[in-house]
Amino acid sequence: MTILEFESSLLQDEAGISQAVESVLSSSQEQLLVLVAGMGKTEQRLLEAGEKSAGQDLVLASTIAEGARTLYMQVARQLTSQSVWSETQNLLSSLFEEVSSLLQGIYLMGEISSQGERILRSYAEQASCVLVAQALKGQAVQAQLVYDRQVYLTHSAHVSQSFQEKTLADFQKEISVLSKGGTIPVIPFSLQSIARIE
Fold first, then answer.
1. Count of C-beta atoms within a 10 Å radius of residue 15
2. Smaller CB count within 10 Å for the chain: N or C?
3. How does pLDDT run across 159-177, given as a tens digit for each residue?
């Protein structure tokens, strides 16, 4: 399996996402795994939103998150074809609704945990994965975002060893099955260490 990695420094804007998509399209490898980071500084912006929420400023936190959502929607509109635009819009809307719910939870708790920070950062990565996967679909290439929140939960000290092992094995199996079936798995960059399959 060939792994293509796209860090945030390569995904600053629409042009960066477009270049990543072109790199995938031009690859001659049969089995690909694409790792995608958050676009530009969106991970930091979502973390900032989390900190504002923990500091009891939910209005500012929501404004920051909305700015990130708007950016992704604008880029998605430019990069995706009409045939996949509606689906792309729904996927991004669903993601940022989850961000909003998480920010409300952080606000109610009055603090943000390291687990909460990881989940917030993951939304920026997931949104970028949606952009890349949907842009590929618009080019008649089979691609799919692969993400499981439980994978992030395995980093918690409160999770049993058996749960960790099963979750990671299931995640790797899903990637392998998709790849062997001709679909390009597109996953968050931060999951690179557990996504490598021999």
1. 11
2. C
3. 677 877 787 888 888 888 8
